[in-house]
Specification:
Layout lengths: L2 E6 L4 H11 L4 E7 L10 E3 L5 H11 L3 E4 L5 H6 L1 H20 L5 E3 L2 E2 L23 H20 L2 E3 L1 E3 L1 E3 L12 H10 L3 E4 L7 E5 H13 L11 E2 L3 E3 L1 H8 L7 E4 L4 H6 L8 H7 L7 H12 L1
Parallel strand pairs: 1-2, 1-4, 2-3, 4-5, 5-7, 6-8, 8-12, 9-11, 10-14
Antiparallel strand pairs: 11-13
The structure holds nicotinamide-adenine-dinucleotide.
Nicotinamide-adenine-dinucleotide binds next to helix 1 and strand 9.
């Protein structure tokens, strides 16, 4: 029997590629929703405001949705520019969806958290699943609070909500949406174009990253896993590879030897400095078999091939 799946925030960096994968499955009928509609004349694409609970409820009921992926959010850099909006969108959309699952309107929810939950007091290297977590951005605060709400709704009402703390995601299908790790995509686009990039983070700023195909594979793996194997109902750590602007530039020069990088540091440096450099994701490996295929060099090569 097929499932009806709704992706909210379907036009964004992750939503776009998640939908491409979900569309390949013949046991799924895919519906998409976003506040801005970019894809022209697509079937099953709805304009929806994720903060409008009545409209979400109506859509889920009308389409008889079984599973929801909630990808609408304001990301770290944009969130710092508009903290109240970040809180309102990131929290209210999640609480609406949790309530609708509690009412039995649909069966399963995926909600992404982020490595932004970690703060300056968390260990920087091989950051464990459970450790000191004092986020310093409104984005991180909203994600950490969201994780606790997910755990609460699972324990109290049995809501089957699953979550991953994504690291920075590198992809080519859609422009990133205003996060601190956006440079990792912009640097490759600039290298192919002008051969010159001015980076807003210092060259030696190490952060964990993941190439989008690995992120999508992980997202589908956690959603496909049997309920009993999901032992963490806040959110799972997910690593990938560690990189920095300098390391990315070096990897890019394997293909574009005259590529130059300059620096003009802005407020995103403080955000990056508060985040881990590498993540311990042994729980994701153990519980639902997370495995990444792409390291830095393979990611850069695939990005240059796709964009070049
Ligand atoms: N991209 C990353 O590197 C990254 C890393 C960690 C976590 N995440 C999380 O993954 C999720 C998706 O991120 P993304 O990178 O695809 O973000 P994005 O900004 O690229 O996409 C978000 C989408 O949500 C839509 N949206 C915004 N407000 C909306 C509203 N009120 N109602 C409906 N839709 C609305 C936007 O139009 C956009 O298409 C977010 O929760 C984000 O915090 C992303």
């Amino acid at each position: 029997m097929s499932s009806n799946v709704l992706v909210i925030g379907s036009e964004g960096q992750i939503g776009t590629e998640l939908c491409l994968e979900l569309e390949k499955r013949d046991d799924i009928v895919l519906y998409r929703a976003d506040i801005r509609l970019l894809t022209n004349s697509e079937r099953r694409l709805y304009r929806l405001d994720a903060t409008d609970q009545r409209s979400i409820k109506q859509l889920i009921r009308e389409l008889q949705i079984d599973e929801v992926y909630l990808m609408a959010a304001l990301l770290s850099a944009k969130g710092e520019e508009n903290p109240k909006l970040a809180w309102e969108l990131n929290m209210n959309s999640l609480l609406h969806l949790l309530d609708l699952a509690k009412e039995g309107l649909y069966k399963k929810l995926f909600w992404p958290s982020s490595i932004a939950v970690f703060g300056p007091d968390s260990p920087k290297v091989d950051t464990p699943q459970n450790t000191t977590i004092n986020p310093s951005t409104v984005y991180g605060i909203s994600k950490r609070s969201g994780e606790f709400w997910c755990n609460y709704y699972f324990n109290k009402y049995g809501v089957d909500v699953r979550s991953i703390r994504y690291p920075g995601l590198i992809s080519h299908a859609t422009e990133p949406g205003g996060g601190t790790t956006d440079y990792s995509v912009a640097i490759i686009r600039a290298a192919i174009g002008t051969r010159n990039y001015t980076c807003y983070l210092k060259g030696n700023t190490i952060l964990p990253m993941l190439f989008m195909p690995d992120a999508i594979k992980a997202t589908l793996a956690i959603m496909d896993a049997p309920k009993e194997s999901i032992t963490i109902r806040t959110s799972y750590n997910l690593g990938g590879f560690e990189t920095s602007p300098e390391l990315m530039a070096r990897s890019i020069r394997r293909f574009i030897p005259d590529f130059e990088i300059n620096y003009s540091i802005d407020f995103r440096q403080d955000i990056a400095d508060s985040w881990p450099q590498s993540i311990n994701d042994e729980n994701a490996i153990m519980d639902w078999g997370f495995e990444s295929e792409y390291d830095l060099d393979r990611t850069v090569e695939a990005m240059i091939k796709a964009l070049g």
